[in-house]
Amino acid sequence: MNHAAPQNPIPYRLVRKGMVMSPLPGQPYETEGVLNPASGRTPDGTLHLLPRLVAEGNVSRVGLAKVLFDEDGVPCGVERRGVVLAPDEGWERGKNNAGVEDPRVTWIPSLGRHVMSYVAYGPLGPKPALAVSTDLTEWTRLGPVQFAYQPDLDTDLNLFPNKDVVHFPEPVPGPDGEPSYAMLHRPMWDLGWFRPGEGVHLPAGLKDERPGIWISYVPVAEVERDISALTRPRHHKLVALSAYPWEDLKIGGGPAPIRVDEGWLLIHHGVSGSIEDPWVQNQNVSYAAGAMILDPADPSRVLARSTEPLMAPETEEERSGTVPNVVFPTAIEEVDGKLFVFYGMADAHIGVALLERTA
Questions:
Q1: Considering the entire predicted model, what is its pTM?
Q2: Average confidence (pLDDT) over 70-74
């Protein structure tokens, strides 16, 4: 990696616009925070967030909240509309844990549906799952993601915890040339948390054990026949690993990629610091937001990426919370020609920033 490259060869910046949602006093579903929202529009065009609501004991649900705007058209608050997904299924619960966490929602016009990816925190830890909806209110689970076996990786991706699944909003070229729906995801290779002494198991050809961003595909024709085919992706390929100090520990996808002049713009998060135990909340880490441009002809190929973060923890709400020093972008929406990025603040609140072009 050429670290002599010009600073941030990504012609975008993030400008903070304030906080839009905080835990509501007396609301039991929110006692440990509201954070990391998805977003989407109901059939009448109204913008909503789908925040992760965390109750006592770190039990997460997905809520629905109408976005409110100030006189300048900037998101400034929400009107709560209840819970739309809870850990009701057995595979979303363990003996001592439960949760449907960190939703990402992508409206895919060719399917006529919102596709939600979320983390099911079940008996074997965090596993990705999908659900679909036409109205953001009623969701149909498609089930856990089942990654197809790929012999050249010399491993089974289903063995590993996985997070940060997000879909492209339209079909993209698959590795075999077939139009495909693609998902980004972030496998984690250390199995020592589950089986003491087991440690890290890397796929064939991978030397860096830090979690990075991968891509997998499902042919459009299969999804048109059966939408649950979205849960059975194949052609898994590494997209990017950590490259710069601000993302030294790991990286992961954020909101659904959006199409810009340069290609697919992916807002991602990067983590720096030190992690002693990845399964405890309080870490000596910092989560910052950056961006990549992915090739429209081959979205597994990175054309450019930010050498410095577009946004790092600075405000009190970002530096102090359930997990200190976190900005975690998870949703992006266009409102009157402006792009707003919604993000988790220290795993406790939700903020919003304006994504602006710099060139």
A1: 0.95
A2: 97
